[in-house]
Design a protein that fits this description.
Layout lengths: L1 H17 L23 E4 L1 H4 L7 H13 L2 H4 L3 E3 L25 H11 L3 E7 L17 H11 L3 E5 L8 H14 L5 E4 L17 E3 L8 H11 L11 E3 L12 H13 L4 E3 L8 H7 L2 H7 L8 E6 L2 E7 L5 E7 L5 E6 L10 E5 L5 E4 L2 E6 L4 E6 L1
Helix pairs in contact: 6-7, 8-9, 9-10, 9-11
The protein binds alpha-D-galactopyranose.
The site of alpha-D-galactopyranose has 9 residues, from loops.
Keywords: Disulfide bond, Glycosidase, Hydrolase, Signal
GO molecular function, one term: alpha-galactosidase activity
InterPro entries: Aldolase_TIM, GH, Glyco_hydro_27, Glyco_hydro_27/36_CS, Glyco_hydro_b, Melibiase_C
Length: 393
């Protein structure tokens, strides 16, 4: 990975030197050099479903791992099974080590990680870059314990850390998150590093060499209005994202029941257009056919996971009608038409407005799978709160 980054950098330096890139070309942000999240991470996290409820336990987590496999979600790309807050006991042991909650995880965390690994999946854990986690019960955070905690997690087989921001004692965010980056690196185990400081210190301006992703906003909830406001904040930050370092508009609510299927399709499509981490947050053990159809839409997932690693941006946005464009590795372009409003509306753009060359192109609607051709206009009648997304070839 280090060699890839250096080679890429050398190529950019050569291009600048040769005058191919003008003096005004942006300096490429160096990503965290751990070789992970070259496309946005995909998996499951329990928080949006269980929070700290008693159903969050070993049987639940292992059931989720089983279901990822049996429903084909694993094959669709969802590989991390991540535990959020409330997995630990409220005090460290006499040696200062974190201790798993005995009721929820009677066989310890390593046993759960081993089970998840036995299914060909990866395992993630959570704590805060503070003295305590966010839950009011106050579980121990890792501030000042970075090396000891990282070493323990590595010994348990942890592959992913979500590092939150509660109880941070007013200490500098960049320092706190960098200390954990270095502690994770010191374990020698590849651990995907997900920064969760809610966009408070504009992590997009400093976190590319620190973490694999950073939350850009406060918490999502299972409502159309919250999903919409997070979309509007996150869509503006596209230039900061790329392979190994992504903007994170928070985890998916698809399937939790607070939005219609049309709204969940918008949520999923917009997250994919923004190259966001795709972490399922609903009970897939009981998912409806409609929920599984959304979460397993391989054509939409392919936009999120595209190797070019470009976050989509808005080409136009007026009166709640949004046109979003995402260039793709094979030269195709994804175009999403999102109707924020409460009434069906026609949304139109043109091939040239979304940067597609002249000539006749095939448009595939990635939800209905219908194909059409165009040499000029791209448009659709889009239902209230809905999104039509085309792959333009
Ligand atoms: C914060 C985070 C959430 C979740 C909770 C857990 O609010 O932003 O995603 O991890 O803490 O307490």
């Amino acid at each position: 990975m280090r060699r890839t980054v250096l080679t890429a950098l050398a190529a950019v330096v050569a291009l600048v030197g040769s005058g191919v890139l003008g003096a005004t070309a942006a300096t490429p942000a160096l990503a965290l050099d751990n070789g992970l999240a070259l496309t946005p991470q995909m998996g499951f996290n329990n928080w949006n479903l269980t929070q700290c409820g008693s159903q969050f336990n070993e049987a639940f987590v292992e059931g989720i791992a089983d279901t990822l496999v049996s429903t084909g979600l694993k094959d669709a790309g969802y590989q991390y099974v991540n535990l959020d807050d409330c997995w630990a006991q409220s005090s460290r042991d006499s040696k200062g080590n974190l201790v798993p909650d005995k009721k929820r995880f009677p066989h310890g965390i390593k046993a759960v990680a081993d089970y998840v690994h036995s299914k060909g999946l990866k395992f993630g854990l959570y704590t805060s870059a503070g003295t305590k986690t966010c839950n009011k019960a106050g579980f121990p955070g890792a501030l000042g314990h970075e090396k000891q905690d990282a070493a323990l997690w590595a010994s348990w087989g942890v592959d992913y850390l979500k590092y939150d921001n509660c109880n941070n004692q007013g200490q500098d965010a960049k320092k706190r998150y960098t200390a954990m980056r270095d502690a994770l690196a010191a374990t020698g185990r590849p651990i995907l590093y997900s920064i969760c400081e809610w966009g408070q210190n504009q992590p997009w301006t400093w976190a590319a060499p620190v973490g694999n992703s950073w939350r850009t906003t406060g918490d999502i909830n299972d409502s159309y209005s919250k999903m919409l406001s997070i979309y509007k904040a996150n869509i503006k930050l596209g230039k900061y994202a790329g392979p190994g370092h992504w903007n994170d508009p928070d985890m998916l609510e698809v399937g939790n029941g607070g939005m219609s299927d049309t709204e969940y399709r918008s949520h999923f499509t917009l997250w994919a257009m923004m190259a966001a981490p795709l972490l399922i947050g609903s009970d897939i053990r009981k998912a409806s056919a409609a929920t599984l159809t959304i979460l397993r839409n391989a054509d939409v997932i392919a936009l999120d996971q595209d190797a070019k690693g470009v976050q989509g941006n808005e080409i136009s946005s007026s009166d709640g009608l949004h046109v979003i464009r995402k260039p793709l590795a094979n030269g195709d372009t994804a175009v999403a038409l999102f109707n924020e409003t409460g009434k069906t509306a026609k949304i139109s753009t043109t091939l040239s407005a979304v940067g597609v060359s002249s000539g006749t192109h095939t448009l595939t609607d990635l939800w209905s799978k219908a194909k059409s051709t165009s040499s000029g206009t791209i448009s659709a009648s889009v239902p209230a709160h809905g999104t039509v997304v085309y792959r333009v070839h």
